[in-house]
């Protein structure tokens, strides 16, 4: 039972969990002894074994590895600090990228992957680099061994008070190497095509960035062919190295483009 004063909405309520599933529930203190339990969340990445209090009567839980987390009222803490996140296939690998800001309450991140979108496994632990800053920070994680077919990914944000937040789950289909979008020729003198069978009939958004990440040009095709001429992207472009960001329906690809006359 929560007896602390930090989170008034929890005071007097009975909180309990299940070791196997990681589910948490709460029963509110009412005059009705048959009050239904409220499901608080599924924290399947941790297995909680014990509850305890500190001197201020705040409530804590410990998992089987010995880690201790505080039970909090999430309506009184800052929301998820990840403001942008995406993933794309490059060669045989998958790149996960996310951006966060106002990370003062964030401890670390855990990128997770899944074969079915239900059971996730941790890929790595990424420490927060902006714990004393309100600036935006960029992170990435490389999956060198994605599953064949559809892969599912999400980012777990672990906050300093022990609370957890998840991003939206994103999926990506791993294509054969010969089917990936390719720039031909590359380097080029201002004439090049983007070629791939997966472009045929798709909505294709092409964004060009310089090597410092500054946006340069954009092209939208609602019913693309398997070979897209990039003259509108390349015309007037200075020599140099660029990044071509290609969104095919909902799947993103990135590649280096070299303009050399």
Task: Give a description of the structure.
There is one protein chain. The protein has one helix spanning 231-234, and strands spanning 14-17, 23-27, 38-42, 48-53, 59-63, 68-70, 82-90, 93-100, 106-114, 120-122, 126-127, 137-143, 149-159, 164-166, 170-174, 182-184, 193-195, 204-210, 215-221, 227-229, 240-248, 251-259. It has three domains: 8-73, no CATH class; 82-174, Immunoglobulin-like, CATH 2.60.40; 177-259, Immunoglobulin-like. It starts with 13 loop residues before the first strand and ends with a strand. A seven-stranded mixed beta sheet has the order 12-8-7-22-21-18-19. Strands 9, 10, 11, 13, 14 and 15 form a six-stranded antiparallel beta sheet that branches. A three-stranded antiparallel beta sheet has the order 1-2-3, with no helix packed on it. Strand 5 and strand 6 (68-70) form a beta hairpin. The chain has 261 residues and is mostly beta strands. The model has no long low-confidence stretch (mean pLDDT 86). 2% of the residues lie in helices and 48% in strands.
Tell me, what's the shape? elongated
What helical percentage do the residues reach? Answer: under 10%
* Annotated CATH architecture of the largest domain: Sandwich
CATH topology title of the largest domain: Immunoglobulin-like
Whole-angstrom Rg:
24 Å
User: Main β-sheet, in a few words?
Assistant: 7 strands, mixed
CATH superfamily of the largest domain: Immunoglobulins
Structural class: mainly beta
Low-confidence stretches: none
Strand order of the largest sheet: 12-8-7-22-21-18-19
SSE order: EEEEEEEEEEEEEEEEEEEEHEE
Overall pLDDT: 86
| Domain count | 3
The total beta strand count reads 22
């Amino acid at each position: 039972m929560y007896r602390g004063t930090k989170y008034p909405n929890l005071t007097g309520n009975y909180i309990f969990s299940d070791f196997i599933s990681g589910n948490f529930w709460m029963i509110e203190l009412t005059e009705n002894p048959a009050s239904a339990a409220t499901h608080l969340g599924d924290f399947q990445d941790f297995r909680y074994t014990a509850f305890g209090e500190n001197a201020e009567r705040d409530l804590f839980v410990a998992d089987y590895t010995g880690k201790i987390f505080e039970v909090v009222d999430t309506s009184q803490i800052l929301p998820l600090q990840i403001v942008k996140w995406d993933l794309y296939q490059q060669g045989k690998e998958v790149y996960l990228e996310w951006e966060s800001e106002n990370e003062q309450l964030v401890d670390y991140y855990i990128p997770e992957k899944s074969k079915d979108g239900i059971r996730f496994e941790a890929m790595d632990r990424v420490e927060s680099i902006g714990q004393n800053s309100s600036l935006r920070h960029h992170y990435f994680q490389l999956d060198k061994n994605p599953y064949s077919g559809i892969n599912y990914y999400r980012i777990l944000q672990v906050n300093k008070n022990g609370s957890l937040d998840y991003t939206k789950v994103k999926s990506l289909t791993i294509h054969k190497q010969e089917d990936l979008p390719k720039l031909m020729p590359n380097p080029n003198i201002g004439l090049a095509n983007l070629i791939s069978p997966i472009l045929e009939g798709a909505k294709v958004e092409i964004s060009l960035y310089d090597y410092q990440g500054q946006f340069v040009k954009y092209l939208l095709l609602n019913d693309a062919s398997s070979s897209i001429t990039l003259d509108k992207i390349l015309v007037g472009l200075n020599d140099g190295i660029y990044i071509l960001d290609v969104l095919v329906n909902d799947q993103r690809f990135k590649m280096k483009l070299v303009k050399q006359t």
